[in-house]
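Archive transcription. Copying these from loose printouts into the bound notebook so they stop getting lost. Printout 1 of 2:
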Amino acid sequence: MNTPSPLAPFAARVALSAIFIWSGLAKLFAASATQGYIASAGLPAPAIAYWVAIAVEVGGGFMLLAGYRTRAVAPQGCSTLSDDSE
């Protein structure tokens, strides 16, 4: 039976954390567009939601990269990445 490489979890964490960090930084550099999108979705306090989303994505991305509480961080980071627009 083949056993997975011990580097596989690390490679997966690097790939997933890169997505979160990149997305958070993209929000940071497009502040007005991101806050406008949040407001158009009808969410209250777009400025606060904007900073929370950045903190979750960038902070969570670095936590994933370090391997700290990965099972708790990954689902919450994914919730900020979702786009329900049709």
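Printout 2 of 2:
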Amino acid sequence: MRNCPQAQKVANLLLLTASCIFAGQDSTILQLSSALVGKACKAVPGAPQYAVEAGYQALLQGDVQGALTQYSRASHLHELDMEAMYGSIECDLLIGKVLCKLVPS
């Protein structure tokens, strides 16, 4: 990573994003951190962790469908990414796609 300035820029963006998340659900901060994550996704499009972060950012902003899209993208990039799977399941639950049967018939 020392020899790759693009990777260092992405790492810096993600550190800034992580610190922004601690600020809570302030819409201005979330929009800025979302923009930074978007730049990271464009800089390294094959990195599932950036797609997962984009999904999380979308979920924080209330965009469940956008979050599901990003989590699905992360799953396609790395089929065993557990964060992407958990995020997709959370979105499916929020959308109402998953119907739970609590009492057996």
